[in-house]
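Hi R.,

Here's the input for the phenylalanine complex you asked about:
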Amino acid sequence: MALKDFLAELDTLESDARAALGSAADAGALEAARVEYLGAKAGRLKAIQKGMGAVDKADKPAAGQRLNAVKQAVEAALEDAQAKLNSGAVKSAAPAIDATRPGRPVRRGRLHPITQTIERMKEIMGRLGFTAVEGPEIEDDWHNFVALNIPEIHPARDPLDNFYLSVASGQQAEGSGQQESQAALGPDGKPLLLRSQTSTVQIRTMETTPPPVRIVSLGRVYRPDTADATHYPMFHQMEGLCVAPGVTMADLKGVLQMFWQSYFGLEGEEHVDVRFRPSFFPFTEPSVECDIWHDGRWMEIGGAGMVDPNVLRAVGYDPEEVTGFAFGLGIERICMRQHGITDIRDLYANDVRFLAQF
Ligand code: PHE
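And here is the predicted structure with phenylalanine in place:
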């Protein structure tokens, strides 16, 4: 046999062996490749070695040298492949799913009870023609106070009743190890705060929309209350606003009555009674507290009233042309009453055993 042919056989073997070892995905495949190429009895290298007797005598040294070089190269490739497998660089080629395992039920998530209540309220108000809008939770002086007819000296602005925002100044206060901070100010130079009521959205809506408007806004509000069974420093409100020519308190009562009727799913003889008690809010005149008769007792659900002419003027509406009503109610209280939840903190403890019940 010519040396040229012998060397060609070795070349083919080397490249085949490298390919097989390089692509072996697990220990089994690697061992199979080892046996095929380096196997002492029937390996391909062994077979070529046996054919060396047919090589011309003068060419034997060159043939032998090349044979040894290929053997060493394949052995080195085997070691590399083994190291790679052990380091986990190659994942097992075994199927990721064991199709023979018995099935297990899929655990589905669910909406938080507050989210469910919000969705239901939004849906009912939507049917009454109210569009759901959103507003920011960080508010400025104008939207949280001034435009809502809350004067500079009003107790509603008290730092003890609001979460005013501050910014770290970046300097350490002398000795205390604490960062100094200063009030975060809005573009108007007045302090920013977390909104304490959703009534801010009334202003934002009217500022950007000419009358008539019919909106609800459901979202978070913040007050520095100590958490107990009925208080939490963050809770949710639904705000309603309807402004158009000729809107009266009778419309307010009618909308609330229809809303609660629908919310509690009552039909026929049964109906929800709505009761107004005189009250005061800076942004409504007259103002009322609203109760509904449900489950054999009066239940207080929130504040309401006719939008104060000062508020209409603040947003550029003409109180001679349009009137409006507004109401605001706490969502947690309704949700808790409906589900028999007795501690508001349970809603925000994120205990799945609690949440999975709704
Ligand atoms: N914003 C009031 C509150 O948080 C409720 C309210 C809304 C009252 C709209 C009147 C009109 O208590």
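One thing worth noting: The radius of gyration is 39 Å.

Cheers,
M.
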